[in-house]
Design brief:
Number of strands: 2
Oligomer: single chain
Helix content: 55-70%
Order of helices and strands: EEHHHHHHHHHHH
Structural class: mainly alpha
Radius of gyration: 45 Å
Distance between the termini: 93 Å
Strand content: under 5%
Largest sheet: 2 strands, antiparallel
Strand order of the largest sheet: 1-2
Shape: rod-shaped
Length: 299
């Protein structure tokens, strides 16, 4: 825009105000308020600067003319009118710039969040069961801080998405490797590896250490509960009884199983609580009504 000039001497003797006013009004009316691209924002911000400069010129012109003459009241009124129109246009444009920038920022952040959400939904159930931190909208928003244009914000979010997807893919690969490791364990140890849905989520080193620890524990418990050899003693007792006691009548069941003789059958189960309870309930249902059964309990 050209410089606004007003010279007074009791009357307006020299001014290009009409031309200057028309130019400013035309600029205001031609302001683009449909802000989408970075270029649109740049042009809008230039318009703000130009309109603001026009406001300053009008105020300065009015100040210089205040002492000159009563005839210029109409000029003052026109200056005030144009100044206010320019001010309202500038404020409206500034609000639109701020609002649209925020909308575009939110759209970019939402797009990034949805991309991670979709990528996670394509992974295994084991990985999805994790209470992971990848779905964090705040971290995506943090990536846009300090970025003045939509292009730079989109680039920052895209870079973060690539990083997060890489981390997810690495974790998914580790879960698959853990599943293979668990499949290779001898089935005789299956009782202590019933929580495989949790074990697959461990780090490789932690999984290896856990496997070794559980197998070692299983073997140690197995040795503790191994029965003592009693075959020789049993034979000796049987021979002694055969020498001292008369042969029992096959039909006399009380001679073989005296009513006052009791026995304890113990079953040791290597399993989680739910599995042990299920087996206990099955045994209880099947044998608790037998006359020779006194008590069935789970400890």
């Amino acid at each position: 825009m050209n410089e606004l000039i007003i010279k007074l001497k009791g009357e307006v003797t020299d001014t290009n105000f009409d031309e200057w006013k028309n130019e400013l009004i035309a600029r205001v009316k031609n302001v683009n308020t449909d802000l989408v691209k970075d270029e649109d924002f740049a042009n809008a911000e230039d318009d703000v600067k130009a309109i603001k400069a026009g406001e300053k010129s009008l105020k300065a012109a009015k100040a210089s003319a205040l002492e000159q003459a009563d005839e210029i009241q109409k000029l003052f009124a026109a200056i005030d009118e144009v100044s206010e129109e320019a001010r309202q246009a500038r404020l409206s444009l500034e609000r639109q710039i701020k609002k649209r920038k925020l909308e575009i920022k939110e759209e970019i952040i939402d797009s990034g969040y949805e991309a991670i959400e979709t990528y996670l939904s394509e992974q295994s159930e084991a990985l999805q069961s994790l209470n992971h931190s990848w779905l964090d909208r705040d971290s995506i928003e943090e990536a846009t801080k300090g970025k003045r244009t939509s292009t730079s914000m989109q680039k920052a979010v895209t870079t973060l998405m690539v990083k997060i997807k890489g981390e997810i893919a690495d974790r998914e690969e580790q879960i698959k490797e853990n599943q293979q490791t668990l499949k290779q364990i001898d089935k005789s140890y299956s009782a202590v590896f019933q929580d495989d849905d949790t074990l697959v989520l461990l780090d490789a080193d932690e999984l290896t250490a856990t496997i070794d620890e559980r197998i070692e524990f299983f073997e140690a418990e197995k040795k503790k509960r191994a029965p003592e050899p009693v075959a020789e003693v049993a034979v000796t007792e049987a021979e002694t009884q055969s020498d001292e006691e008369p042969e029992a009548n096959e039909e006399d069941d009380s001679a073989i199983h005296p009513a006052d003789e009791s026995h304890v059958i113990s079953i040791e189960v290597f399993a989680q609580v739910d599995a042990a309870q299920e087996l206990f309930d099955e045994i209880d249902d099947r044998y608790s009504n037998r006359e020779i059964v006194g008590e069935i309990k789970l400890s």
